[in-house]
Specification:
By secondary structure, the chain is an all-alpha fold. Among the domains are: 57 residues, no CATH class; 67 residues. The protein contains seven helices and no strands. This is WWC family member 3.
Length: 226
Amino acid sequence: VDKETNTEDVFPDEVASLPKERPGRRARGSPFVRSSTIVRSQTFSPGARSQYVCRLYRSDSDSSTLPRKSPFVRNTLERRTLRYKQPCRSSLAELMARTSLDLELDLQASRTRQRQLNEEICTLRELRQRLEDAQLRGQTDLPHWVLRDERFRSLLKEAERQTRQTKLDFHQEQAAEKMLKKASRGVCQLRGRNHQEPIQVQTFREKIAFFTRPRINVPPLPADDV
């Protein structure tokens, strides 16, 4: 090993360790005798190794540990202040942040719903035209294909009810619709409090179900009566 960078040295065992004295007493006593020559890059003054009790710790700014050895704890974060990292609590705005996938799903859902509504409007217009044509030909009864289909009959009943409803019924329906919206908001709040599944996952499931199970309120008209 190169002597210029060596920090180890052989110290004689016969040199007794001297207690640390004050400068005044040392001046009156015998002068200090070096036990070995000074080697370059040696940290402490030459002398017996038993004089030095070195405890080197990391600085406070570098996640220093405790001087005393704590009992072993598995999966622990040991720091000088013995503080555990608190989980960051994200705000509601961050939880409800909409990604590009959410925006794309909403766009496709709105387009699909608009296409379904346009198809239902076209079917209702065609149904009204067929019924008016049958009435002009002198037919007082409904066509057989209307009576055979339960969906058409319920649809005609709903149309008759809407034509006969009064202003009071209209206000009652509005009140019922408001109550339904309020109940739906309560359901959404209860769904948001459900910790078994994140609200983003629930919303994604509902959007996928909307695409896979389309709601068709107006049945298609038969092609043989065109």
